[in-house]
Design a protein that fits this description.
Structural class of chain A: alpha+beta
Strand order of the largest sheet of chain A: 7-3-10-9-8
Number of helices of chain A: 12
Oligomer: homodimer
Largest sheet of chain A: 5 strands, antiparallel
Largest interface: A-B, 48 and 49 residues
Shape of chain A: elongated
Order of helices and strands of chain A: HHHEEHHHEEEEHHHEHHEEEH
Helix content of chain A: 40-55%
Distance between the termini of chain A: 66 Å
Chain lengths: 348, 348
DNA sequence: TGTTAGCACTCACTTTTATCGAGTGCTAAT
DNA sequence: ATTAGCACTCGATAAAAGTGAGTGCTAACA
């Protein structure tokens, strides 16, 4: 049986209608709403074929048809039309990125929020990761009479602060000097490189302050581990409640539970191995609680070559075209803002 | 009509049963389950009185009774028994606090998570706030060939990092010196103190790097504003779905929407003006979508005198006794860990 | 006078039955 | 190949009937 033009037109009509209404689409509806110049009976015959081919499903005998995962797949691969973002949407995304570009964690958080707001779907973002991150900067700054600020940064510019409580804070110059020495010792190390010998050397350098060593080491370790752990930001999960496919509270709950497991999200995002946009439809992801969901992912590159992944999750009946355009817009934005930052540097 | 002992016993039975089952409690249930030594008919008479007094409500004519807000109020003020945390619960909380005590934002986030996990309710936490925060530390550190790390801290030890992109990073010593000078200029200023004159001075100091000034100022401003803005952490909102009072998806959605508005949360937490534990029952908070919810708040003090608020939100039918003990345990924990930190310093 | 057994009554909830209508598949005519 | 026509299916909605937990009232009892 051939998938001729007319069948495709009908399939497209079914998908469009179902995306818009979430109701099974009948032959008469198509005949009336979409002027294909054929009668409902003819449409019925074609629909029967489409069902046989696996592109649409009849939920029960006297209902209209809904697209199957395979139907959506065809739609996404061959039928879907690219849509451009509206100017104001573009602007909105851009302003969010520009406002947060200097702090990766805020950028992720705010970007996720912005995308959820724009699409009404759920957004997942993973931060760029550096494996076996080497320490790059370790510094001490005085804060107040009992606190020292420890700043640690790893390659990939993952930065973290820790406040160390001490009884006596060394005088400023002395503290800087201490920081510089610690930095010299630890710079370039990964967390695994820090052995007894190095700890010994540190202890020697710290002298009367050696009691802060455990806190210091633990802070350094936390930073290093943090840089290696993939951070995932989730936003707009509550949007799920708005979709009729989750008006059953049990389903909603089980999806929420799934989304709470960070590892699951990471796995989901990791599916995207190349840089292209990737669309996972329905049970293409292997999670029971997400069999009625689709996830669209794409990667973005920060200036330094590290890459993260953005994913948008919605019902299989999601507006693929919109989501794709928002994701494209977002990635372009991040790149643009980074480029603009570079220009700025050159200009001045 | 007097609220004699027997009435109180019956009220207590109703509340206990309703908290456990979420089903209206009938006279026969009480007669059978709680051995009060009186018949269901007598209980019926007493219940009729309790209803007249406003402590219980009959949802409809042929149903049992449920506690009214007033009933819960009486329970909370006079009947509720203090419960001690189990050893393992105590330990769990303590480990969370100990692990995160050095970073206020993580502490809040993780504490919120821990409490939600322990209670199965929703947790809100606001961070300590400093009004008109003065800048305390501004430093520059080299990160890589195109990035400078700007560390800013305000009074109250609110610390933030920003990465500034530049075309040429000054040599390390030079950069420190720059940082030191900027610090000298800005130290002690609030964000409002930074006027044209100061900007001019900064510009002079920065010389060929003056193009980073906008980014630097914006970063400083962000930090200062951040210190002034109340940060609120919300955790375990999805727990709400588990309660039968929110099995109606509309209600759940509207509560979720309310919880998404940060200002609402802040207002809620701000209700707690003194340091004592405060219990807001049902419509005592004036939010329509939360009229079936209670919020229990308490404040915690960080070492430096700043204070934040922890709130637990659940259905009015929540386990007040458990929540109170968890909150007490948590506050005690934070204090203990802080004290332990101080001891540690002295010992060494 | 307080307590209790007994009983009629109420009303949400469940089950059953009936009705409706959107949508299909098949057949026969065009 | 297309389509009008029609019998048929079956979920959804509505109406009717039945069930039972729980009440309030009354009258008897200690």
């Amino acid at each position: 049986m051939a998938l001729n033009d007319r069948k495709i037109q009908i399939l497209q009509a079914i998908i469009n209608d179902y995306i818009a209404t979430a109701e099974p689409v009948g032959s008469r509806t198509i005949a009336k709403k979409y002027n294909l110049g054929i009668s409902s009976a003819t449409i019925r015959n074609e629909m029967s074929d489409l069902e046989e081919m696996g592109f649409i499903i009849q939920p029960h005998a006297s209902a209209g048809r809904i697209p199957s995962d395979l139907g959506y797949r065809l739609y996404v691969d061959r039928l879907m039309q690219k849509r451009e973002l509206k100017e104001e949407e573009q602007q909105f995304l851009q302003s969010v990125v520009a406002r947060n570009i200097s702090q990766i964690d805020y950028l992720m958080e705010e970007t996720a929020k912005a995308i959820s707001m724009l699409t009404n779907y759920t957004t997942l973002i993973s931060e760029p990761v550096s494996k076996g991150a080497k320490l790059k900067q370790i510094r001490l700054l005085p804060l107040d009479s009992e606190s020292i600020l420890l700043v640690t940064a790893t390659e990939g510019n993952y930065v973290k602060n820790h406040i160390l409580k001490v009884s006596v804070v060394p005088e400023e110059e002395k503290l800087f000097e201490l920081g510089r020495e610690i930095n010299a010792i630890l710079k370039g190390c990964t967390i695994n490189d820090i052995d007894q010998r190095i700890v010994g050397v540190l202890k020697g350098k710290l002298q009367e302050y050696s009691y802060i060593l455990p806190a210091l080491l633990s802070a350094v370790e936390q930073t290093a581990r943090g840089a290696e752990n993939i951070q995932v930001h989730l936003s707009g999960a509550k949007n799920i409640l708005a979709f009729p496919e989750f008006s059953d509270i049990q389903r909603a709950k089980s999806l929420f539970q799934t989304l709470e497991q960070k590892e699951v999200l990471v796995t989901l995002l990791k599916e995207n191995k190349d840089d292209a946009m990737q669309i996972m439809i329905g049970s293409e992801n292997n999670l029971q609680s997400m069999k009625d969901c689709s996830v669209i992912t794409t990667t973005y590159k920060m200036g330094d070559g590290t890459r993260g992944t953005i994913g948008i999750l919605g019902p299989t009946r999601m507006d693929y075209s919109q989501v794709v355009s928002v994701l494209n817009g977002m990635v372009k934005n991040i790149e643009n803002v980074l480029k603009a930052l570079k220009e700025e540097k050159k200009d001045s």
